[in-house]
Amino acid sequence: MALVQRRGKTMTDFSQDAEAARWNYRPENPVGLNPLFSWPPRPAAVLRWYRGAWLQLTSLTLCLVLAVAAYTWFLPPLEAMQSFAPGWMFRVWLLNMVPQIMVAGGLHWWFYMRKGQGMYKKFDRRDLTRDNGTFTFRNQLWDNIWWTLGSAMTVCTVYQWLIYWVMANGWVPTVTWAQAPVWFVVWMFFIPMWSGLHFYWVHRLEHHPKLYKHVHAVHHRNVNIGPWSGISNHWYENILYFTTYFIHLLVPSHPLHLLFHIYFQQVSPILSHSGFEKIKTGETEAAKTGDFFHQLHHRYFECNYGTSEIPFDKWFGTFHDGSAEATTRTRAYKKQMYT
Ligand SMILES: [Zn+2]
Ligand SMILES: [Zn+2]
């Protein structure tokens, strides 16, 4: 183990600590957190963080493009949604199903079937699991497809039907671009943060031993994750997880806000669970996909419950930055939790 002198104290060299050997690929630096919450303030780092998230090809920008396309070409106008009717309800279901199948199916094909970039920037050494009784249908892929398209897509669609219907009837405040352009943009910008806040607390609740055993364990069957693992959740977990959308009944929103929130909640987990940090075609790295922060949660369980957007894990002492030291700490915490 290599030790280096840094700021007068001896600490383990991140690039060569024992954790490196546990992965096929581990990012060079410790996992980063949103510097917006750093003290003293680091405005240049904040700017870099948001520029990296919004002005490049990332899951965030993909979700925004999907939302705009869905709103422009497929979503029925609100007036058509004042009463429940099969036409618009079917369209809303399709708007969930089609992007999910295309993105998860596409990434799975590239990474795991075609093996388009081999092991390049793949975190875990192992391939996805087959012929294993832990999984429904004894197969990780079919298990994940079932829990995503069956359970998750059903629950999220029912919630969306309700929200569009309430919005269409004018029972909650809505906004348009013409009425409040500044609010329109600001709220869009804050949706990922709201989602991170909601996710952290729901996720912590799911790690309560009882809920974990009967519900959240379905998602955690996937220690080694793939694109279809993203929202491969038990029914009860989905009922909780998708309550995040009900914020649009309280905060004045436009259908485009809801659509962006929908894709952020449903499509971006496909990327963050892809198991690869980046997608590479030919010689160029096309886009960031995986999220080592959440990959660590699937390997070590009792750490990184939230996202890197709001550093709850750092505040509550459960942050794993990818170092061997953090693994030792997490294992000790887990032991004390279950004894
Ligand atoms: Zn979990
Ligand atoms: Zn996960």
UniProtKB/TrEMBL annotation:
Presence of keyword Transmembrane = yes
The record's principal subcellular location, in a coarse class, is membrane
- Tell me where in or outside the cell this protein is found: Membrane
Keywords in alphabetical order, please: Membrane, Transmembrane, Transmembrane helix
Would you name any one GO CC term?
Answer: membrane
What are the protein's GO molecular function terms? iron ion binding; oxidoreductase activity
Kindly state a single biological-process term from the GO annotations of this entry.
lipid biosynthetic process
Identify the residues that the record assigns to the Fatty acid hydroxylase domain, covering every copy.
193-318
TM ranges: 52-73, 93-112, 145-168, 180-202
PANTHER family (UniProt xref): STEROL DESATURASE (PTHR11863)
Q: What is the protein name given in its UniProt record?
A: Fatty acid hydroxylase domain-containing protein
Organism placement in taxonomy: Bacteria, Pseudomonadati, Pseudomonadota, Alphaproteobacteria, Rhodobacterales
